[in-house]
Amino acid sequence: MDQRVLMKGNEAIAEAVIQAGCLHFFGYPITPQNEINAYMSKRLPRLGGTYLQAESEIAAVNMLYGAAAAGIRAVTSSSSPGISLKTEGISYMCGADLPGLIINVQRGGPGLGTIQPSQADYFQATKAPGHGDLKILVYAPNTVQEMVDVVFTAFDLSDKYRVPAMLLADGILGQMMEPVQFPDQKPDIPAKPWATNGTKGERAPNIINSLYLVATELEDKVRERFVRYGEIEANHSQAENYLTDDADVLLVAYGASSRVAKRAINAARNQGIKAGMLRPVTLWPFPKKQLEAAAKNAASILTVEMSMGQMVEDVRLALPDRKVQFYGRTGGVIPTPEEILEQIKALGGGVK
Amino acid sequence: MDILREKTLIITGHYGSGKTNLAINLAKSIHSAGTSVTLADLDIVNPYFRTADFRQWAGREGIGLVSSDYAASGLDVPALSPAVDAQIGSKETTLIIDVGGDDAGAYALGRYAPRLKASGYLMVYVVNAFRLLTKTPEEALGLLYEIERASRLKAGCVVNNSNLSDQTTPEDVQSSVRYAQKIAEQAKIPLAMTSVRRNIYEKLADKNGFYPVDIYMKPPWAED
Q1: Are residues A272 and A215 in the same domain?
Q2: What is the Cα–Cα distance from B95 to B116, expressed in whole angstroms?
Q3: Which of A1, A4, A5 to mutate to test the interface with B (most CBs of B within 10 A)?
Q4: Which residues of A touch B49 (CB under 8 A)?
Q5: Which chain B residues contact residue A32 at CB under 8 A?
Q6: Looking at the domain assignment, is residue A204 inside a domain?
Q7: How many CB atoms lie within 10 A of CB A214?
Q8: CB pair distance less than 8 Å for B165 and A178
Q9: Which of B47, B104, B165 sits opposite A175 (nearest CB)?
Q10: Could you report the per-residue pLDDT of A54-103, keeping only the tens digit for each?
Q11: I need a surface site. Which of A1, A75, A179, B71 has the fewest CB within 10 A?
C-alpha cells in the first residue's frame, strides 16, 4: 500500500529516529536543524520518551553518553558550530565504546559562519570528530528518503560495532520537502550486556570509562578498536553509481552537491558528453573500491563539494595515479547546475 | 467562494502544507486581474524557502513584498517588519499575509489580531493530506484550533493543497478532496478550492473547484 508522505528533511530525520526505536533526544537549538528539536518536543513526550533541551551542546552530548552507557538507543542533533562543541563528548563515547547517533545539519563555517547549507565539516566528521585515535560511522544521504533510510542503518551498525554514528546532512536537505516512505519494520535493538543498567545482584558491575592509567592497556584497547574499524571498512562502505559505466568525465559528489551534479550530468549527456557520478553514501568508511572501479575507464575526474575541497583529498588518496580536479562553492553558497556543467564541458573536450 | 476577491487574505496551515507557494500564486492571479497586491512574510520560523526569497521576483512582477529586514539575510532573527501594520486595511491594495507554519508561526499573526478584526479578513487554512502529522481530518482540525488560539483569529475557509511534491498524481489530488471536505465540514467553514500543480490541472476532466498553481518553491537543482 502506498504510504508516501511529504516531509521536510529535518522532520523526516526525527520521525525516522523515532521509528528506529530511539525515544530519547538531547539537544540544543540551532538553525538550520531546529525542526528536529521541534518535532521531537511534540512527539517524544506522547510516546513516553525523553525530549530534553539541555543547557548547552556539551551538556546534550554528555547526556547522550549517559543514555548510551545505560544501554538506551539515543540521539543528539545540532549544526556545525554546535557539533564542534560536541566533539569532546564524541571522543569520550569512542573511548568508552558507546553507540549513539549524532546528527549534523551543516551550515557555513568556520565560526558562527552562516545559516545557509554547507559541506565544510567533512574533515571534522571523517578525520577528527574528537581527539585521539578514533573513527565514527558517517552517513551522507542526498534525498529526504535516504535520510530516513540511513538512520536505521546507522543505529544498527553503531550498536553492532559499538562505534558512534553521524548523519551528515546540510541545511538544504534539512529544509527541503520531498515525499518519503517509512520502512515497514520494527526496530531490532540488540541486547547490551555491557550496559550500566543495574546488576540486580545477578552480575558484577559494568564499568563505562575512557580513562586508562597504563599506556600499554590503552594501546591494546585502541588496537582492538581498530580491528573493528577494519571490519567496518571492509563491509559497510556504500556508494551510488550514476551513469558511470561509460562515463568519460566522472564526478564525485555527495549530499546536496550530488543533486546539483546529477542535473549537470543530465545536461552534459544531452550535449553528447558522457558524464557520470560516483556518489559516496558513507564518507567513513570511504567507498574506495567503488571509486576505483568507477574511475577505471574515465578520462577525467572532478570532485564537487560545498567547501574549499575536503573530500577531494580522500578521492586523491583512493586514486593516487590520477589527476583529480576540484570545483566547490563555500560559505553557504550552493553551486548551480550551470557552473558544474561548465566544468564538465571543460573536461569533456579533452581527449581520452 | 472566490477567495481571489478578498481584500485581506491570511494564509495559515501546517508547515509544509504549501502556504508560501500558494500565497505567491494567489498574489500573481490577483495582480494579473488588475488589482495591486502586497505579500507580507510573517514567517518567524523558516531560515529559507520563504516568501522573502522572492523579493526580486516580486519586484519584476510589480507585486509588493513586505518582510523583516532580517528575513533571508543570514541573520537568524525572528523579527517582523513595521511595514506590515501600514498595509492592513488598505482600500486599494489586496494584502496577502503568509504566516509561518503551525501554531508557532501563528503567534506572530496574533500581534495583528485587533487591527485585522477591525478591518476584516479571510483566514485560509491550507491542508495537505500527505503530511505525516495531519494525515487525518481530526489531526488537521486539532492543528487548526491551535493556530486559531495562537493567532486569536478564526479561519474562514479551507484550501486543499494536498500534494506529494513532484510525485503528485491526479489520483492523489482527487482522493484528497474528501479529506479536505471533512475538515471543512467539521470546522463549519467552506472548502474554498483545491489547488493543484498546473500539469495535473490540465489533465483534470472536471476543473470546477480546482485552482492551478505554478511551483515557485523548489531546490536549486530542480528541473524546470
Answers
A1: no
A2: 11
A3: A5
A4: 175-176
A5: 47-48
A6: no
A7: 8
A8: yes
A9: B47
A10: 999 999 999 999 999 999 999 999 999 999 999 999 999 999 999 999 99
A11: A1
Domain finish residue from A184, A219, A235: A235
Asked whether residue A172 falls in the same domain as residue A220, the answer is yes
Q: Are residues A181 and A274 in the same domain?
A: no
For chain A, the domain total comes to 2
Q: Is A5 on the interface with B (CB under 8 A)?
A: yes
Q: Is A173 exposed, middle or buried (0-12, 13-18, 19+ CB in 10 A)?
A: buried
Q: Does the CB of A257 have a partner CB in chain B at under 8 Å?
A: no
Chains A and B form CB pairs within 8 A to the count of 66
- The answer to whether residue A279 sits within a structural domain is yes
pLDDT single digits (tens) B196-217: 999 999 999 999 999 999 999 8
C-alpha cell at A310: 575536503
On whether both A99 and A215 belong to a single domain, the answer is yes
Same domain, A190 and A244: no
Chain B nearest-CA residue for A177? B16
Considering the domain architecture, whether residues A219 and A273 belong to the same structural domain is answered as: no
What CATH number should be reported for the domain holding residue A185? 3.40.50.970
What residue in B sits closest to A117 (Cα-Cα)? Answer: B48
Interface of B with A (CB under 8 A): 15-16, 46-49, 74, 76, 104, 128, 130-133, 135, 163-165, 167, 219-221, 223
Give the separation between CA A276 and CA A265, rounded to whole angstroms. 6
Report DSSP state, residue B217. Answer: -
- Which residue range is the domain that position A190 belongs to? 5-199+210-235
pLDDT tens readout for residues A111-163: 999 999 999 999 999 999 999 999 999 999 999 999 999 999 999 999 999 99
Cis bond leading into A285, ω under 30°? Answer: yes
Domains of chain B, CATH where assigned = 3-213 (3.40.50.300)
Are residues A229 and A260 both part of a single domain? no
A195 and A160 inside one domain: yes
